[in-house]
Amino acid sequence: MNKYRTRALAALLTVGAMFVSTACGAGLGGPASSRAARDGVIRFTFAPDPIWDYMHDEGIIEDFEKETGISIETSATWDEFGLFAGGHADIISSASFEVPGLEAETERATVIIGRYNSERSRLMVRADDPAKSLVDLKGKRLGVFTSVSGTLVWHALVEKMHRLAIAGEKPDFKIVVADIQNLSNLLARGEIDACICYPDLSARELREGGVRALYDGKSSAELFADLEAPGHDGPMGNVFVAREDWAEEHPREVEAFLDLWSRGLKEWRAHRDEIIERYPQHFAVESPRYVEFMKSYVAEHDWVVQDIRFDKRWADDESKIFDLMRETGVIEADVKNPKFLPTAGDRR
């Protein structure tokens, strides 16, 4: 077994369908290039994304390519690891806390070059449940969508806060693995008692008041900051990860990529409501009333970072998630932290 994977989470079943849609975004098409890395080209593989689609549709990416002379070969897939392992991508996205696993699975040295959004999952219960924390739900049915991703972080947090195990040989809950898009609905119907859910995939139940989030509505990232890194905005649900050798050999392309995404984050801040309206599929909403709800929710709980770039202090704080996961047995003691490439502020 990959020693990055926790013994405690190994008992969880593999989930069959982890995502809402596998449709390509407007700006991400076709299979990734099979050609080798080369100067002036960035082979970028990313799951369908609203900010990227907006930049594509507004001509921002086309203008970027003309101005820099750098072309971006893109592909939309949920199997970013697979393309990365096959050598068909220079940059992909991953949760920061999954990067050691990415390296172990693909046998490729990596470096984190940029940040994108924080781990946004919440621990939810039915609105009429009096539970104040997971302590009140010991022995009950906890819905999860995967043994990795946000579940890794929640396992570490729950172990740290309450000395309770989400899974393993003697879990303190009855674990129910279900499709990510159905968890909040199962919760509202009473088929499970709590879930690790994403708010954008729970818009209907949240808007209708059928479910609520524990811990004052805080995400796993916010709880992590409270416990381990005050003021920090991670751990990240998505960072941009490059092959280490490619990043070292293509500093111009790395800088250009970060500049492009800096523009993307600026566009998000300026046109967030419009982006949600134009690409509701990325937020798992359809009808106008749920689009309006999502716009209001994201305005209060925006998980997209302010700046794609980071300094060494931020990287050190982000690395504390690995200290927590080692402390709580989520990963083995000898698993190394991922490498970071600070490009802002103090880089020492």
TrEMBL record:
Domain of life: Bacteria
InterPro entries (alphabetical): SsuA/THI5
Gene3D superfamilies reported for this sequence: Periplasmic binding protein-like II
Signal peptide, first to last residue: 1-26
Cell compartments where the protein resides: Periplasm
Residue intervals of the SsuA/THI5-like domain: 110-274
Sorted UniProt keywords: Signal
Similarity annotation: Belongs to the bacterial solute-binding protein SsuA/TauA family.
UniProt xrefs under PANTHER family: ALIPHATIC SULFONATES-BINDING PROTEIN-RELATED (PTHR30024), TAURINE-BINDING PERIPLASMIC PROTEIN (PTHR30024:SF47)
Protein name (database record): ABC transporter substrate-binding protein
Lineage: Bacteria, Bacillati, Actinomycetota, Actinomycetes, Streptosporangiales
